[in-house]
Amino acid sequence: MRSKLVVELASRVKNLPPYLFASIDKMKQEAKRKGVDLIDMSIGDPDIPTPQHIVDALKVAAEKPEHHRYPSYEGMLSFREAVSDWYKRRFKAVLDPKDEVLSLIGSKEGIGHIPLAFVEPGDTVLVPSPGYPVYPISVLFAGGESYIMPLTKDNGFLPDFKSIPQRTLMNTKLMFINYPNNPTSAVAPKEFYEEVINLAYKYNIIVCHDAAYSEIYFDEEKPLSFMEIEGAKDVGIEFHSLSKTYNMTGWRIGFAVGNREIIAGLGKIKTNLDSGVFEAIQEASVTALSTDDPILNGIRKTYQDRRDILYKGLANIGLELAKPKASFYLWAKVPKGFDSSGFVAHILEKAGVLSTPGNGFGAPGEGYVRFALTVPVERTKEAVDRIKKAL
Ligand SMILES: *Cc1c(COP(=O)(O)O)cnc(C)c1O
Asked: Is residue 315 located within the same domain as residue 200?
């Protein structure tokens, strides 16, 4: 007789907090089962298709047999050159395509892997909260310790470095920052990045800036890249993605740029774990990176129209929120008498509108709710009307 296999998860998996969007997905399925006409504003996944010229470029590239083999680990030189050219055009930042640019299977992949290259068990990593859940999880997988930097309204949703104990900074190996910010939609001024660079020099900290939303901006105010600040390349790298800019979340392509030693460290992890991005996708991404401004302005205009309606609508209802300058999120205080989860459950039940509880992005997000601008204008109006009735 064979006895049943005992499948025991490793503690690094057992100790994981429940994945935020898994519980939201459950709520969504439940609402759908009940036949609710759901307006889903919970997940930051563009509803607009990838621009046609990029899809066409993929079709052509997919036909080429030379793309059917294993790609190069660091990305095709033509792709890395296109990234370098794009940075020059957009930010006037100079990056050597040979060793200061690395392709990623979506920027989530790079963010998830970078602590494995640099963080020893017990090392501290500075993590903004509320924030993208992958930062603390990647630290956990590497055996590091996250030090939570709360992002508060009083500080413009920027970390307050002065509040971090000197002892912690001395033990810090790496820090994550992210502007335009998910979920708060805050943008960072030049002075902030200069402070980051000074801190990184002083305490020898590797800076990882996540710039996934740099191209989703409104009112012609272009967000900065970390790479355009003097000294940034001495201390850090920037993660970027085609996902949000070109509505390519399903394609899985992103890149890291900056300090060549940090890029090489991340590359070392990747060569041992994956085999790069399908070359046809890289070739189509070269086309994406040279997309004409009118197309991108059209995408921004779509989000801006939705932002204006949702911002005005929620402010009229009495929610406390700032008008986002970038990203496709609205970050609002929940009304008095609710906590984050209670409010999300209430407007799901009474209005059929699904949003994301702020505390799902970390404890400092408690008391907030995030709405994604990934729903067409008419449905956004409808969502506002329904939330108004539900309150
Ligand atoms: C969407 C997102 C990403 C990554 O997206 P990829 O599709 O993996 O490139 C990274 N950071 C933040 C903050 C995001 O919201």
From this structure: no
For residue range 285-318, list pLDDT tens digits in order: 999 999 999 999 999 999 999 999 999 999 999 9
Short-list 295, 284, 222, CA closest to 253:
284
Over the stretch 356-367, which tens digit does the pLDDT of each residue have?
999 999 999 999
11 domain residue, yes or no: no
With a 6 Å cutoff on the Cβ, whether 370 touches ligand 1 is no
Residues 212 and 112 in one domain: yes
Tens digits of per-residue pLDDT, 211-246? 999 999 998 889 999 999 999 999 999 999 999 999
CB 227 within 8 A of CB 233: yes
249 lines ligand 1 (CB under 6 A): yes
Testing ligand 1's pocket by substitution, the residue of 111, 181, 243 carrying the most ligand atoms inside 8 A of its CB is 243
| pLDDT of amino acid 361 | 95
224 near 250, Cβ under 8 Å? Answer: no
Which of 50, 83, 108, 135 gets mutated to test ligand 1 (max ligand atoms within 8 A of its CB)?
A: 108
Residue 26 maps to which CATH number?
Answer: 3.90.1150.10
Q: Same domain for 56 and 120?
A: yes
Domain end marker among 242, 261, 289: 289
Domain that holds residue 308: 17-46+294-390
CATH number at residue 169: 3.40.640.10
131 within some domain? yes
Domain count along the chain: 2
- 184 in contact with ligand 1, CB cutoff 6 A: no
Asked whether residue 81 falls in the same domain as residue 229, the answer is yes
Q: What is the pLDDT of residues 8-63, one digit of tens each?
A: 999 999 888 877 777 778 888 888 899 999 999 998 999 999 999 999 999 999 99
Distance between Cα 108 and ligand 1 center (Å): 6
SS3 call for 16: coil
138 lines ligand 1 (CB under 6 A): no
CA-to-CA dists, residue 80 to 72, 85, 103, 256, 387, angstroms: 11, 9, 7, 10, 46
Q: Which of 254, 289, 324 is the last residue of a domain?
A: 289
210, part of any domain: yes
Q: Which two tokens stand for residue 342?
A: 């209670």
20, 134, 210: residue to mutate for ligand 1 pocket, most atoms within 8 A of CB: 210
The single residue listed with the structure tokens 């949003």 is 355
In this prediction, residue 31 carries a pLDDT of 87
Quick: pLDDT tens for 83-140: 999 999 999 999 999 999 999 999 999 999 999 999 999 999 999 999 999 999 999 9
Q: Any bridge partners for residue 320, and if so which?
A: 333
- Give distance in angstroms: CA of 317 to centre of ligand 1: 31
Q: Measured from the CB, is residue 107 less than 6 Å from ligand 1?
A: yes
Peptide bond connecting 294 to the previous residue in cis, omega within 30 degrees of 0: no
Tell me, using a 6 A CB cutoff, whether residue 241 lines ligand 1.
yes
